[in-house]
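Example record for the data management plan.
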Amino acid sequence: MEIVALVESEEHVCTRYRLSAYKGHFAKSGYSLKYLPWPKSFVGLLSLAAKLQNKTVIIQRKLPPSWLTWLIKRSCKHLIFDFDDAIFLRDSYSKKRMDDPSKLARFVALSKAADAMVAGNQFLANVTAEHTNTSKICVIPTVIDTSKYHPKTSPPLNDSLEMVWIGSKSTLQSLEIIRPILEQLGRTFPNLSLKVICDSFPSFENLKVTPVHWQESIEVAEISNSDLGICFMPDDRWSRGKCGLKLLQYMAAGLPVIANPVGVHNEIIRHGHNGFLANTYEDWSNAIAHIYQNKEKQNLMGRRGREIVDSLYSVNANAENWISLLNNLGQQKLQAG
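Corresponding structural encoding:
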């Protein structure tokens, strides 16, 4: 059976981690995955009906206008919506209010039309349940292909500690929010540094920054060569829709992690086990001091994090969820026929 995924691009991070990662598993189960970028013109959008005729269609993240949702639903065999963000809201840094009636209306229309809604976390699933039957909702987390990550087998020998942060230019604003904490950490721990993997880079007076221009071919190696992964999200509804990809990448590489207790951070991090939940400077300082003082513990926490990713957030651990969903839709169609 051919699956057609309507995506922003095949290289988009969401497509790579939430669909491309499963291609091999799909093929073994008799499903081929084809990508179709969204048309740029109105005529192109109208022509979608012919291209999607009798296909299983996955719409990823994008909220089409209600008329287009209707057209796609009318043409395809099955309609699935896959999302890993609170796309029914404006983001944390929008200058407008977070609530967006237009986005919400599109999301509601899509929720009602889709045969299955694949949410990246429980918060997104709960919001979806307000608008459609819960039997259509499936939670499948964003996943990591752990075969690409090879954690260090021994603790670092020197006294330096390199934190790593990876993200896009738009999400660099999260580091600006905790700038006072990072500056103070730099003063407290002279051998502490921050590697930023991005396409834009901040600078600090008291904390050394190592800039690394993001490339897919080097991101795994650059994360793996660091000592500690960090993340911060504003405490709001948009952030609660996030699925923790940064943390999962760090943990797959065998790094302990520090993040604030917001959204999925509370689920992914087991405080004191594979990392630390930190709000204040004192929280961050105590966590870093703990890692500094015990290199063996640093290594142990990293191994525990990798085990969590392997068991809960890896491709292999979640492939069956997708296959079962696709098989069930096929079975429902046969029964309906």
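Summary line stored alongside the record: The CA atoms of residues 27 and 169 lie 35 Å apart.
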